[in-house]
Amino acid sequence: MPGPDDDRRVEFLDDLDILPDTTSDERGVGWGEDSEEDSTARLIADRPPHWG
């Protein structure tokens, strides 16, 4: 029969990544965007008409 919970030994794994800092639905790919890192061309194409 095991002893009280205070006697149990628990080892913590500090390098274990349980939950990621950013999930895939928070990135552009999760919203259906291209996985291209450089978005300069997209920003220029999406520029409003009144910006000239």
Walk me through the structure:
Residues 1-12 have a biased composition (Basic and acidic residues). Residues 1-52 are annotated as: Disordered. This protein has 52 residues and is low in regular secondary structure. The protein contains one helix and no strands. The radius of gyration is 24 Å and the shape is rod-shaped. The N and C termini lie far apart (78 Å). The model has no long low-confidence stretch (mean pLDDT 75).
pLDDT averaged over residues: 75
Cα end-to-end separation: 78 Å
**Topology, number of strands:** 0
The secondary-structure element order is H
What is this structure, in a nutshell?
The chain is low in regular secondary structure and 52 residues long. It has 1 helix and no strands.
Give a topology summary.
Elements: H1 40-45
Supply database-style keywords.
little secondary structure
